[in-house]
Amino acid sequence: MPSQPNNPHLPFGDQRTAPWYGKDIISVKQFNREDLEYVFAVAHEMRTMVERVGTFDLLKGKILANLFYEPSTRTSSSFTASMERLGGSVIPINEVKYSSVSKGESLPDTVRTLECYADVIVLRHPETGSAAIAAKAARKPVINAGDGVGEHPTQALLDAFTIREELGHLDGLTVTMLGDLKYGRTVHSLSRLLSLYKVKLNYVSPDILKMPQEVIDELNAKKMEQTESGDLAQVLPQTDVLYVTRVQKERFEDPAVYEKVKGAYVIDAAIMKAAKDRMIVMHPLPRVTEISMDFDEDPRAAYFRQMEYGLYVRMALLAMVLGKA
Ligand code: NCD
Prior knowledge:
10 helices; 9 strands
């Protein structure tokens, strides 16, 4: 939404002067370290509440429009669950082909329509920059749930929360990102977010799927320690967080190129013998073949727990932008 001053005439007890009230969440660049601590604290509180009572009425009467132009299981259903656990409700638009988008309606018009009915819009769209375009058109908060190969800020926030809950801290860690670092929007957001901490980043990928130079330059300017290679064995023994990504088949222009790199890395129980005992393996999911199921029962496999942390973080973000955190 366009920036607007807080309204000083709201009734006492209303928290609409809270810093995130009415804000869009488009990029991790909007967050500083203090904001992150705040998100973590609220998410932690959400976890306690869900464990204690399951559902509660913090956002009773509020409506979320879940607008998905690309497939999604976790992001879409966790936003739905978040809203419903907070007592609100959801307009789900998962199949844009059944909406007026298939008649040629523009994104700004669709967003302007949905904000007539909803208090907040969650958007996933195949084009980089689409979330910013939607946010400009809308008066209500827009939350970016993935804009093409651009960013996926709520995923990065839940990833950082996962690391914090699992390992207790972020400063001093070595994080290795593995797989499709070119098209994987989750690693674009997470690496930027981790630049708020004293983290060492290793990028391991096939040559044609390297982390974009733009991200590397940005983090170099922040004096972040980064290494690049094609060989996981070199960095695995020192790694505290191994962040595995899927090769993003849908972003390849030439299917033959995808076929060449799709199986470049497979994490399995044998490979993980070289890793520390106290470390975690994360994955935004869905996985295809890049983590073997024979590793799932290992206590270091954190990817299923990571999904659950996502619920608490998205509950926190909804409460924040709707002025109730
Ligand atoms: C990711 C995405 O959509 O970018 N999934 C997710 O949101 N959990 C990763 C992926 O699709 O590989």
